[in-house]
Design goal:
The protein is mainly beta. It is built from 5 helices and 27 strands. The strands form 4 sheets. The protein has a 12-stranded antiparallel beta barrel with strand order 16-17-18-19-20-21-22-23-24-25-26-27. An 8-stranded mixed sheet has the order 5-4-3-2-1-15-10-9. A 5-stranded antiparallel sheet has the order 6-7-8-11-12, with no helix packed on it. The protein starts with a helix and ends with a strand.
Length: about 400
């Protein structure tokens, strides 16, 4: 869910390296929006689905066909060490009304990322993000000033190894140019992610100790140590496993919805009013907008942030998936991240595949690091219960 240090480390320095083009490293750097201003503006005009319905709704409450998610980090330390088992070490700060909350996010050599945080209820914390997580002490010593980050992180990583990391460097003051961040394969099995790099700086002094041994940092092209300090917002679509059942004023959503192992567990109360299906959360709230059962917008809002961290617009609206319809119905979508328009785009194809089963295929098309993470939702109607499972599918 975060950029791999190998592509973002010292992006500014890379621009000055003559080997950049020859080595193909330009493909690793952030890019511009996926949509032009005019292309993005066209999504604001709502268009109803062209679906030809053959029966009425199977349930009274709306169906959630795709899992949106989003998180904004007020400060984020990204380091890449030479440890053979770990690809990246990330230390992200969420700025919450209760104060700062730090997460330690270590990615293994396959790009799979796990979270360690000092939260007793971590399995139900932001449950729409399907990342493995561990509740454990994360001791953060912060002597930072307005101009300088001065941080130390001490914890036990997901492999049970003691970790001691220090970082000192100048605070970032400018966004990345361009700022549509490249995920470079991180958490590829779990999320289709987009990143907005709204503050960005390379360099500083860092030390990474794992298992009592200090590991040097990787150097890009053998020259630039991979040390980054940034602020970023991440969002997009996620795999999911949940069940929906009716409840007064809306519906109840339970994760997981099947007996399969799942990294999060939650029972969520959703309300439906004025076309919006909402789940309020202490950190992230989710909102889906329906008109006559057709989904035209989905958002993730983080507490304390005055714009949606993730905002997805569908055009035409997705069909009312409670009602059988003929053939395959296709829509396009645009995704804004942290108010930055058109960071991602793609298509959605919906069809009934059986008397009680609906398929929703999410096919991202741009940017290229988003386009390689298609997903398919299978929706099963079982009386008043709906089972929803979102899985990654082959590119």
């Amino acid at each position: 869910m975060a950029p791999r240090g190998r592509h973002l480390g010292a992006a500014s320095a890379l621009l000055a390296l003559p080997l950049l083009t020859a080595c193909g490293l330009s493909k690793m750097l952030p890019g511009p929006p996926a949509l032009s201003a005019g292309e993005r503006a066209a999504f604001e005009a709502r268009v109803p689905s062209a679906a030809r319905y053959t029966a009425g709704p199977r349930v009274e409450f709306p169906v959630i066909p795709l899992q949106v998610w989003g998180l904004r980090y007020g400060l984020d330390v990204v380091l890449v060490s030479t440890h053979p088992d770990w690809d990246m070490h990330e230390y992200a700060r969420l700025d919450l009304p209760s104060g700062p909350l730090w997460l330690a996010k270590d990615a293994d050599s396959n790009g799979n990322q796990g979270i360690v945080a000092d939260l007793p209820d971590i399995t139900s914390w932001i449950p729409e993000v399907p990342a493995p997580r561990i509740s454990g002490p994360l001791v953060v010593t912060d002597h930072s000033t307005a101009d300088t980050a001065d941080l130390r992180f001490v914890y036990t990583n997901p492999a049970g190894e003691p970790v001691d990391v220090t970082y000192r460097g100048r605070m970032p003051t400018q966004p990345s140019k361009p700022r549509n961040g490249n995920t470079m394969g991180h958490s590829r099995a779990a999320v289709a992610a987009l990143l907005d790099l709204h503050l960005f700086r390379t360099g500083g002094e860092a030390s990474v100790s794992i298992g009592g041994k200090v590991w040097p940092l990787q150097r890009l092209l053998g020259l630039v140590p991979l040390k980054i300090l940034l602020a970023q917002t991440q969002g997009g679509f996620a795999i999911a496993d949940f069940a929906q059942t009716p409840s007064p004023g809306g519906f109840t959503l339970v994760r997981p919805g099947s007996a399969a192992p799942w990294p999060t567990q939650a029972t969520e109360t959703w309300t439906v009013e004025d076309g919006w299906a909402r789940r309020e959360g202490p950190v992230v709230s989710l909102r889906y907008h329906f008109v006559d059962g057709e989904l035209d917008r989905a958002q993730a809002w983080q507490v304390g942030v005055d714009v949606p961290v993730t905002d997805v617009i569908f055009r035409p609206a997705l069909p009312d998936l409670r009602r059988p319809f003929e053939g395959t119905v296709e829509s396009a979508f645009a995704i804004d991240i942290a108010g930055q328009p058109g960071h991602g785009t793609g298509r959605v194809r919906c069809s009934w595949t059986g008397p009680d089963t609906v398929s929703v295929a999410m096919i991202p098309t741009a940017p290229r690091w988003f386009a390689d993470r298609p997903m398919e939702t299978t929706i099963r109607f079982e009386g008043e219960k709906i089972g929803v499972k979102v899985q990654r599918i082959a590119d």
